[in-house]
Recover the amino acids of this structure.
């Protein structure tokens, strides 16, 4: 069995966070008209992604659209759909 990467209130939420990251990437691809690799590169180097990894703040439990909005605000992108 693998070790949990993300734990919240004593529960393994690793799969939840991974699913959320993928959903955010999909939103960014759609909004920015970019491919998967570019979306991953942009998101993984953002402050929003760092915040998402700090699970105690609960960002991981928000909608992918909300997280994408935070990313768009951070990067100064005005292409919100």
């Amino acid at each position: 069995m693998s070790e949990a990467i993300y734990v919240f209130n004593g529960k393994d939420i690793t799969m939840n966070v991974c699913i959320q990251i993928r959903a955010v990437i999909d939103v960014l691809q759609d909004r920015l008209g970019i491919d998967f690799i570019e979306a991953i590169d942009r998101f993984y180097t953002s402050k929003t992604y760092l915040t998402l990894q700090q699970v105690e703040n609960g960002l991981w439990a928000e909608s992918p659209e909300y997280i994408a909005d935070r990313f768009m605000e951070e990067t100064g992108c005005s292409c919100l759909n």
Notes: The chain is about 60% helix and 5% strand. Strands lie at 7-8, 11-12. The chain has one domain: 7-75.
